[in-house]
Sequence to fold (439 residues):
Amino acid sequence: MEVLKQELKENIIEQLNLEDITVEDIADNDVLFGDGLGLDSIDALELIVMLDKNYGIKLTDPKEGRAIFGSIEVMAKYITEHRTK
Amino acid sequence: MSKVYINGIGSISSQKTFGNNDFLEKILVYTNNVIPVVNPDYKEYIDPVAARRMAKGIKMGVVASRIALRDAGLENVDAIITGTGMGCVRDSEKFVSAIIDNDEKYLTPTSFIQSTHNTVGGQIALGLQCKGYNFTYVHASISFESTLLDAKLQLENDEANTILIGGVDEQGEHTIAIHKLINHIKLEKIETTKLLGSNTAGTIFGEGANFFVVSNKKQDSTYAEVLAVETYNTLLETEVLNTVILFLKDNNISVENIDAIVLGNNGDIQYDMFYNKLSSGLFKDTQQVYYKHLCGEFNTASSFGIWLASKILKTQKLPEAIKINKKSKENYRTILLYNQYRGENHSLTLLRKC
Fold:
């Protein structure tokens, strides 16, 4: 799980071009959207594609993303339970 | 009909031009055939949250436009008109590559959203909250002149009082590779200052953003008056001379009145002959200026020529690095600019000191 969390932080920083943010800046329980990391709806779409491409998880209902993308901790738990690759 | 003035300028080029203080006192010489811009600190101008989705071309355009606005002492304008040949080519390449690499699956939205040609104009407007006329011209090497022509018509007819215009193009890795393959970029490496003496086909490629605040009101910061601009999609080598003569006649200006001619020579032996028709003939006794050894060739490189001419007219200085010939001249009052790329999309522009 720790390896997956690290991987998720690296991928989020790279895919969302979070230039001034390092892996160390993102705590496992930090809120990713809104006041937390400041991600927005376009970032949510990027993350949905990332889940599909990297872990074989298809989110058909974007509303699901709201809960799944709550924090790195929540994302890692969801991926571990649902990944197909 | 109102007159049209250039009241503010902003340039991001392969020279350190973004500061707007120096005028090519020290030039950067490159030995690569693809030269990048000297980047300002974009974070000084753009909020990092907004900047993270911006490719280089957008950042260059937004920052050059801010510099021009500041130079003109303005917070906002009535309209924004952008010229670009290739638009946001990096994001276009990224998106198309993703389609191919991922077998048309897993397409992410950001590069698609940012890949359109009018993204730069849109981002400038968003930053300024400018809800006025916003237009982007995409027409190869007359993209920038098209913005100038549009702005000139609006200002002359008092449809707007201040307009931000600019030319912007960024380099894309794949696009550059194609231009190398088809020999539009020189095969041999050449020192940029020796570009005109290369005697080979192709040129050096650059990128950049040059923005201007144009207005129908003259002010202290004014650089020049825009007397005329004309574009020609096709023009034979044999037609150039007569076209220039006619252009000058239409504007009641004689060859003797031209204090300097700014030429778009790019060292391509196949196409510099268009310029040679003028430099070795009608304008052989006129001070000739070139600039593509400083900024490289790109679709809106001629906007750097306008930046250069504006600076000459305001400062009355003509840096050694841009002289093709050496004619003693005490003051520069009227400048003619001529540009074309690979024998197509020609433009003539006339600027006058205020």
